[in-house]
């Protein structure tokens, strides 16, 4: 019995030893860990971000720059973390992520700037990013990245009617764009017309898009027009050129079958009166003087 109690005591001491060792290991690991969880309100899905938050808006397909300024030159290691999946992106000036679109732009102009660059941003890159400094206490700043998807509009679409011989003005406006496009082309029936030497047709770039002008429209100017920018969804408009109405055939010797019923009736009455007046004797023949 005495031997059994001694064995139980030894087992309890060994168990307590492992528990204390595990707790001490967790404490040391959390102290050395560069990513610390944020305290969030219980029962809510949103986090409480303890630190300055920068709002950054970038256009899909462009480059996003997330700022992280450090005023203490003797601060520790700088890291960037993507909050939604706790992914460590950079460690100091080196990229830790396997995604080559991420990099650090480090500059020293009075304050240390460890900006995170994301090349060719996609809609899935939106979210909160954390810049963390392993100082004591730990310094943190955040950047909320929003991604916009630019698109084009042509006022008057989807159908635009113009009279033959009048001027045509089409304006392509870029919406939700954060930077100018590398190119913006106009197409008519699928054929680019920006550089065509077509008389009366002119293309001008504007701050928000492009303008296509046609001096005197012809039937050949009708069709589907497309405005396509390098960084925005294209826009379309169908242009209908209304040809001038032809003059009545009676006025230029055309086919009488094209005459309207009113003109035919009028011509018939004139012919009938002429025939009747030819057959009726004049007053001088009935009553000679």
From TrEMBL:
Keywords: Signal. InterPro entries: Ig-like_dom (IPR007110), Ig-like_dom_sf (IPR036179), Ig-like_fold (IPR013783), Ig_sub (IPR003599), Ig_sub2 (IPR003598), Ig_V-set (IPR013106), Zig-8 (IPR037448). The keyword Nucleus does not apply. One of its GO terms (cellular component) is neuron projection membrane. Residues 41-148, 155-238 form the Ig-like domain. One of its GO terms (biological process) is synapse organization. SMART domains: IG, IGc2, IGv. Pfam families: Ig_3, V-set. The keyword Transferase does not apply. Residues 1-21 form the signal peptide. This is Ig-like domain-containing protein.
